[in-house]
Structure formats: C-alpha cells, structure tokens
Amino acid sequence: MHKGDICMKQVLFFLLIAISASIYADNNSTQLIEYSGATIEEPYWFKDRFLDIAEDINEAKEEGKHLLIYFHQAGCPYCYNLVQQSFLDPQFSEFIQKHFDVVALNLWGDREVTLLNGELISEKQLAIQWNVQFTPTLFFYRSGDEKPLRINGYRSKEDLAKIFDYVITGSQKHSLAQSLINNSAKDKLYPSNDFKQIDILASDDQQKPVAVLFEYPGCLDCEQLHKQVLSRKDTHQLLSAYQTLRADLSSEHLITVDNDTQLTAQQWADKLGLTYFPSVILYDENLKERFRIDGYVQRFHFHASLEYVSDKIYQRLPEFQRYINERADRLRQAGKNVKITE
Prior knowledge:
The protein is α/β, with parallel strands linked by helices. It has helices at about 5-20, 55-60, 75-85, 90-100, 125-130, 155-170, 175-180, 220-230, 235-240, 265-270, 300-310, 320-335, and strands at about 65-70, 100-105, 110-115, 120, 135-140, 150, 195, 210-215, 245-250, 255-260, 260-265, 280-285, 290-295.
C-alpha cells in the first residue's frame, strides 16, 4: 500500500470517528432540524461552472478530486438539513472541499447542462431524464467512463461520511449497502403485524400492488419508521391497499424475485442498488416497480409515496414532486395544517 493511501485511510478513519462521536450520543437515528421556509443559501465553495459534466469531471480529476452533482429545490426541508448539518459543518465541509467539486442543479431550473454525450439539456429536463424524484439527490462521479453512484434523498452526516469514504477509497470488498449496515447478532427485527416475511415476490391478491420493506435488525432508522409512521392509523389505512412484505437483510433465507431467480435479501438489495435502510419498493399489480422510497423521509412523503402508486398517480404525474405540491395544496384547501417534515 502506498504511503498516500495509508494517509488517506487515516484521514477518513478519524473523520468518521469524529463525526460519529458528535451525532446524537443517545439516539443515532436520523433527525431533522426545524426548517422555517427561509431561502436555502448554498455554501460559497460550491462550483459555479459552465455545467459541462465532462469538463467538470476532468477539472476535478486534475485537482485530485471527484465530482458531486447535487439536485435541490427551493423550500426543500431535506435540502436545508443537508446543507446545515453536513455541507456547513466546519469539520465536514473542509473535508468535502478537499476531495470533491460540488455542482448544484435546480430540480426546476432552466440553466443548460452539457451531458457526457454532448447533449445540451436544461436542469429540469435532466431531472426528468435521470428520474430525480426526491431532493436532495446526489450523483458521485469518479470518472466520465463509469456510471455515477446515485444517492436518493436525505442522509445523515454519519451516513454521508461512509458514502464519501466509499467513493474516495473505491472500496470493492463490500457493496455500499453493506458498508452502511450496523447490526449485531443479538439484534432482532422490529416487530410488525403489517409486513410478513417475503418468500416470493408475488401478491396473494393480484388486484393489489405490492410493497416490499427492506430492513435489518438493530436499524435505528427502521425502528423510527415503525414507531413514528407505520404504527399510525392513517398509515395502516394506506397500506391496506397493498400486499405488504418485508425482507431481512441479515437473513440467509432465499427469496424468489424474478424468473425463478433466488437471492438473499442482501443480494436483492444490492441488485436493486439500495443504499438506505429502511427502503420500500412499490410494485404495481403486475409486479412492475413503480416507485421506491430509498432515502430518509417522514410521514408526509411516506404517505404521498403510497398514494402515488396505489392511486396510479404516476400515470398522470410522472414527476413525484409535482404530486407532493398538489397533495399539500389539497390538504390546505381542506383546512388541514400541512407540515411536510412530519
């Protein structure tokens, strides 16, 4: 191993230790800070370039860095938390600046972006082409000749540190999903009467769509989802439209997923490219994936996701964020208080 590699691993190790020690000493589940709706100021060190992805990758590479593309939108509480808790954290931001060039793209923006194939496209058209359904969404480029690593939705600072570690070190020993899982042999899955263990990807009632919950024992965000969202009566009502199944990532139990292919839950999660747990994949009645919740969300977005598939809203609104706005407006018109971070 080169001396530089050893130094890099030491830097990453101490960064992870420092970040882990500073986050929620009593509760390591993901937490959001209050967002008042104010303008979300981008860090001064974000790159304001010509938005040519190939040039941005090459320029970052010349400086010994990687390119990070960050999709955001105005009024996004999850973007606000990413900026406040990670990008503006003094220790973490210094590390990001040293190893990444960050380019911010607006989900609804009109600026033109040049793709790797030379195609010129607006920010909002690119968001559609790349199927960006949540903000924030991150794309990590190591080079221009490989598929970028995609991270959908909000992640805690602790998880982001592990993701940055994975990108910088080019780890091949484990999948990113495996790197993010923390559990021990004594941990057990959080009890649930709504989700049954999956043996085969199928529906007992072919008139119903299917929801598959991916989780693992000892997962604090999984426990938080069960306690704060899945235990609610309104969530039960929305889930009643689904065949509900769950896959335990710690289990060696084989699941028949497609065309008689049998995989463990971990193998299936890797195949699906899942990098956050709990994740929920939503399939229609024909077992075609229609949507996935694979980032940290709270009740409002979770409920909207369930409605999006069960009510087939994706057929008229391919962009999920448009439904988020429509749903919020509908609830307000009905006299209800809407807080999308609850």
